C-alpha cells in the first residue's frame, strides 16, 4: 500500500506557508516516502501511515483540527529505528525542520507535542491528541488474523533482540495497556473498538506467556548443557 503524494501536498499547502525556509510539499513528501520505505521497516512503513489516514478519515469530524492530527500521523514514525528508542523525538525535530517558519510557533508546538504522545507513556490532554494516539494503536482492534500479522511485522523489525526478550517486552507493554481503565482515549474508539482491542490483547498475552515459558525453558536447557557445567564436557 502506497502513501498518497497528492493528499500530502494538499495538506501541506493548507497548513505551511510557501514563503521562508519551509520545505516544499514535494520535497517533504519525497523525504517521508524514502523514510517509510526503509528496508528495515515491516510494520512502521507506508502501509501503517495509509491505514492511520484511513482511521482519521473515519473519525475526522470528531475533532476540531483534523489537519493537525493528519500532520502528526505523517511524521510520527518518520525517524523510526528499531533501536535505540527516541524516534518520536527525532520525528518531531524533523517536522520542525521541514516546516521552519512556514507555520506559527504555536501551530508547530501543537503538532510536536502530539507526536510526543505517540510514545504512549502519558495520557493525552486534547481531543486531537487522543484521536492520534488511538489511531496509532488501532492495530489492536483489527480482526484477530490481521492483528497477528501486525504482531509478526513488529517482531521482524526487532532484529537486535531475541525471541525471549521480544516476548518479555510485549508482555510488559500489553499488560500496561490492559491495566488502564480504558485502552483508548477518544470517544469513538472507546465506543466502537475498546471491546475488540481488549479481547485481542487478552488472547495475545496468553500466547506470549506460553511462548515465554517455552523459550525460557529452552534457554535454561541450553545453558545447562554447555561444557563445563556440572562436570559435563570435561
From TrEMBL:
Q: Does this entry carry the keyword Nucleus? A: no
What protein name does the entry list?
Metal-dependent HD superfamily phosphohydrolase
Fetch the SUPFAM superfamilies from UniProt: HD-domain/PDEase-like (SSF109604)
Record keywords: Coiled coil
**Keyword Coiled coil on entry:** yes
Q: Which InterPro entries match?
A: HD_phosphohydro
Note the coiled coil stretches, chain numbering: 194-225
